[in-house]
């Protein structure tokens, strides 16, 4: 007779002293872990619910402006600094860690139309309704010194926007035409005109730094190449300069993707945003919907995976850059029309300035814990993230993850617009049904809004 | 995505490893050769970048490049039910994403398989000498041979006053609960032989069951269901549950399933104390019940020889199978949920395959088994009269001679294998500390309790196939359409019926309308016929063109086809 009996030595399974950690022997045999899928599903459900429970995105409001905030600028070198310009010509520099205003400058008479910080972070530029471009030092003036700009340039017309080159001492302003300025000179190096009256915004490409995009009041988006002095026909296969594209309605702002040089997103008056590939301008890559009023500003996250938009409908939305619908909407009772929005350089916060004189700080990820995470917390977070992703299409989980409370006005407008869209679709279908085959073609949403592309 | 599913692959279990394959020496040799060499680069393509710069300055080469190989059968033990499709008809980005995920899964599998080496314990066994039948070896013989600690596990309690007794081991196998029919209830830690509580409820006790941990147990008494704590203090008397005969606790759902002499199957959620479901089974007195540990479906045995399978949210049985010619006496299902053993008053013991619901093996026991029980590693114990017979590999061959035998003084009323107690290869040797831990501390138990409650599975997820929840739901077009019709109240795909316009001057007489209708009705048919004729003709003309006339026609050509 041969006998072998398992005899466990309790010392192998019980901790030696009370101060030790309890021992946890593992066996990964799936038959010892039954109901794997239902348990994971339950975990995913719990994680999704908790995410909604902890979704408290609003952090603080920066108060101090005496008129609506019109523009904002991030500091390229300091995470805690942000600049804002108001409708009364005042520029404020804020410290985000203390949430206090560190400096106030009466920069212009009338609106501060645009502002940007030099790439090195030592000075910033503002343009205003008083037809001037002013360059200011970032440091506050010393004791006894007067608050004065380093340079002031008086232009012929009103400037509506400004942006600085990402490497050189060159900046661009827009107004009646797009002007390229050398910092050392008082007259523009170059001016681009295309017979348009008012250009509302101009942005340099952060990667292909010689490329410049602008949006005008005549519904067009124009791209320029600084290396081409005059309007030229398409020269190189990749870069076209200038290239003009006319949409159905006017574009309010545009922003380049900081990771993909050829991608930019335009915020349009028709409640939508269009992400374009610079190389193929016939149709946008993606149309981003969900806003119920004009979109006023857009800014990409530093990873280029997401962007945030400010809208006239008193809300801001966050879109994944590859998705047509927003993943998040932020609003508060007191926030009015949001005029400008910025995504902080550490990818954690969103700043928005609105008509009722406040700048608000939001979390980019609504349910994220901001303090330092312990390793176990981080492991749990990662696990939950994965499980949520795995079960995201299950109806119950999707319902919870997608649910957002909306103000009544937005909610009603959404349903109203849905009805309108449905009616339009129905009418189209009927028209197609009762006319000759091919007479009423099916136009995809992407192609609907581009009127013309000119070179 | 294409609606076709890849063939379902079930997890290989201990049975199949040992018995079904039965690899001969030659095959074994071959298998050793068939080791899966998983080089890091091929297994983890998403990590490729980090492992390219492996050149050593000295130029020395690694004699054993890549990761150590993992035997294929070891890998298959960890494989989950379904693998991702290789050929997918979907977007390229989705395809690459799925491929990447699949490779990660494979990597995790091989890692888990490699972990097998680190398992501290090995299963036990009992082997007879040449010509010696293992069933003739008595318990005393074994106890004499093995070491003292193992021998101390062999114990007898003589309880001759309040019997017959029902008993239940706690999930981690540490605690034992006893209940005599005449009211004696006792719980003990059987490792240390310490008595936790003992009392007499002064009432008939039908069944007894531990709840999720050893701090609470349920006792089915003459009239109501009672819950006691580990000190024997009555916590609840649940009057919604009356005349309960048998109970089963579903640990992952926190459900206590009971069946009563009034013919009701009831579920109690012990985490919130609510009755989840009460189903009238309509099969008379219910006194045979067992749970399927793989999918938490409850099996009930009936007097007419049928076994019915129940889930709490469905009022009809999921499956009904006729198992015996007489009434069912006992049921038991193994851990993998593949095999069910049943015994009836026709004195037969039959093993059923629960994937096909067909009998696999059957044998006639002289007295018939009054109680059955599977161990964690698949041994089957049958209480036959006053003898306990333990069978091995019952799903492979008809149980003829038992693996072990034990005869006691009185007829057997209840039996159970102690979980995680590997007495000669019955229980699982290596437990998982996060699932059930026989050596857990109080703190560990409390922590586990919180975690377990958080991931309590909802009762509506009890289905025959628990893996279904993680799979793509390929609803057929028809079903989708049916649902849409139900939702919208009309069939959007239905062709609008032709309603002839009303015409003046007597042209809308009944006959005329009918004629016009008929014209439209056959129009489509005609178009279809026309099309098919055209196709046929074009095919014919094509074939005529290609066909080569072979020689002169013969009279026998007419028989050609």
From TrEMBL, chain A:
UniProt-listed SMART domains? WD40
Q: Which residues form the Sof1-like protein domain?
A: 364-450
Compartments reported by the entry: Nucleus, Nucleolus
Extent of the WD repeats: 62-104, 288-329, 331-372
Q: Is Phosphoprotein among this UniProt entry's keywords?
A: no
Major location (coarse)? nucleus
Extract the InterPro entries matched here: Sof1, WD40/YVTN_repeat-like_dom_sf, WD40_repeat_CS, WD40_repeat_dom_sf, WD40_rpt, WD_repeat_DCAF13/WDSOF1
Q: Which domain of life is it from?
A: Eukaryota
Name the UniProt key words of this record, in alphabetical order. Answer: Nucleus, Repeat, Ribonucleoprotein, rRNA processing, WD repeat
The cross-references to PANTHER family, in alphabetical order and at most eight, read: DDB1- AND CUL4-ASSOCIATED FACTOR 13, U3 SMALL NUCLEOLAR RNA U3 SNORNA ASSOCIATED PROTEIN
What's this protein's family per the entry? Answer: Belongs to the WD repeat DCAF13/WDSOF1 family.
Protein name per its UniProtKB record: DDB1- and CUL4-associated factor 13
Biological source species: Ranitomeya imitator
TrEMBL record, chain B:
State the compartments where it is located. Nucleus, Nucleolus
Residues covered by the BING4 C-terminal domain: 402-466
Compositionally biased spans, kind Basic and acidic residues: 13-47, 74-90
Biased region (Polar residues) positions are: 540-553
Residues in WD repeats: 321-362
Question: SUPFAM superfamilies of this UniProt entry?
Answer: WD40 repeat-like
Q: Name one Pfam family in it.
A: BING4CT
UniProt keywords, alphabetically: Nucleus, Repeat, WD repeat
Q: Where is this region: Disordered?
A: 1-106, 496-520, 532-561
Which residue stretches does the UniProt record annotate as biased composition, category Basic residues?
A: 1-12
Protein name (database record): BING4 C-terminal domain-containing protein
Q: Source species, please? A: Ranitomeya imitator
